[in-house]
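Archive entry. Fields below.
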Amino acid sequence: MNSNNLGLAFFIASLTGLLLSADPVLATQTHGQPEGLYVHQMAHVFFIISMGSLEFWLRQRNLIKEKGWKYIQWSAVLFILWNINAALVHFLDEHLDILGISKIDLWHMQVESIQGQDSISLMYYLLKLDHLLCVPAMFFLYFGLKTILKNTTADNGNRVKP
Amino acid sequence: MIISSLPILLVDLVGSILMIILAFLSLRLVFKLREQDHNNLIWTYLWWICLALSCFAVSRSAGHILKNFLFMTGQESFWAKIRPFSGAINTFMFIVVGAVTLFFERIWKIYQIVRKDRQALQLAHKDLLFLNQNLERLVEQRTNALSISEYKYRKIFEVSKDMILVTEKDGTIVNLNPSGYNLLGLDRETDKIDSRNASEFMAESEKWLDAMASLQRERSISNVELDIITSEGTVKRILLSGSMAESADNEVETIHFLVKDIEQRKRMEEQLAQADKLASIGELSSGVAHEINNPLGVMLGYTQLLLRGEKKSSERYADLKTIEKHVRSCKTIVEDLLSFSRKSETEKEMLDIHRVIDEVITFVQHHSNIEHITLEKEYSPGVKPLLIDEKKIKQVLINLVVNAIHAVEKTGHIWISTDLNQSTGDLMVKVRDDGHGIEKKHLKNIFDPFFTTKPTGEGTGLGLSVSYGIIKNHGGNIFVDSKAGVGTTFTVTLPAV
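PREDICTED_STRUCTURE:
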């Protein structure tokens, strides 16, 4: 038996021993309530980073000189803003205890600032209209793709087939 | 602060629906893009982004719509149950969209490489296709161009008035142009020069070897004077230039020679030099002859006076006769010198040259022993009378014929012919013999006064000088073509009236 086989046998034996002697705490970790929120916020940050990198590379590769890609760049920028908006709303909703939000009826709601500042309440209200950012972002994406498709179709039409 | 929820509800609801619609419309556009080019990596990338965004839009918007619906219908508790699930999917889709988006830079780089390679391939394909479709025509065009080029240079080779000779490094002939064949006296049909060596045609092998050595050393030579021997055995002077060159297949080096025939030019130069020389000698002779002629006349007169007073039997009479004889000889020489220097008087009249020649032949036949010598004549028809001094022209012809008789010695042929030069109308009288000929070294001196190859006492060396003077005095010319051991031809030209 060579040294490689000896190593493998030792590894299997150790692993078996470890599994047999494991406590429940060691095997899995429980995930409590706020963990989902953290992950969601992190996802927003990750989305911001990825859209920021897309915007950066579009500039770097000079693609923004083309109309289609320029629209996509605007889409990325709007998505970044939307993510900031959404993350801020989540933050106000879940993290800070500065707002008291309650539903009065189907068509009315009450937003109360602990410090009694209506401006914070108003800001929260406006931030809740986040579709005003993500829908234009999707519009820009759509127009960007449409322009690219149009240009590509024109290019293919002009190309002389051999 | 109590605020209306309606704007938020409306924006949320409409925005959610729009998000789904726009996401799917975008997906459709990317689908179309991919339809155009399935292999385009960027379209694939956009496809994944739009797909992820669509999933995200559906998950989020569906959640929002459901939430609003449940809230409106008072089923908030049900929403509380499905909310974590909806939020989790929503979060997951965020991450997917973000993750896919992050790949843009890498995807773009790969796309650029692929596009570059594809363009190169397309270009190569295009070139290949073009070549494939036009190969025959291109080959034909190239062949035509080559043919034209070949024809052009072949023509230069063929029509060149100078000899063009191509040899290997050792002088083995590779190619020779028509002028070369003419110069060497060869026949293109019958004489094969391939593999013959150029040195075979060189009269002076040492000079040729020197030229070749110089050529190998310096890779070119320019205007080297050499003598060549033609196939008929005549020697011609040439001007040789040459350079080493790679052969067409770059395997062996060849030498390209350009050979100029300068024989005619050299002869002209020599004739001019000869004429100049003879003119100078003529001036000198004329001066001397004039100065001597008068004293000789006085000497002859007094000698004859003294002879009258002497008895013929006396010794003194015999002495005076000897003086008289030698003075007369001297006078003859002086007269000849005057003839040579063209100072003697001439009496020209219109005469039939053929009659003059006939009389000369008759005279020579009567006064010379030419039993074993064949004398032939060939006259050109239609020769008009010429303005000539009969006596002096006869003197010239007798000189030439007698010289021919001396050249053939006991047996041989002498030809006398006349010919008209069609361009100038001048008459050419040729006296040709098949005698011993004149050595090359003597040719340039034969018209010099007192030049003779005969033993002392057998000739004054004035015969040809006098002939030269007489012909020049007639506005004509005399020249000689001779080869030792073969024969001599004297040509006299006399101008037409």
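CURATOR_NOTE: The two ends of chain B are 146 Å apart (CA to CA).
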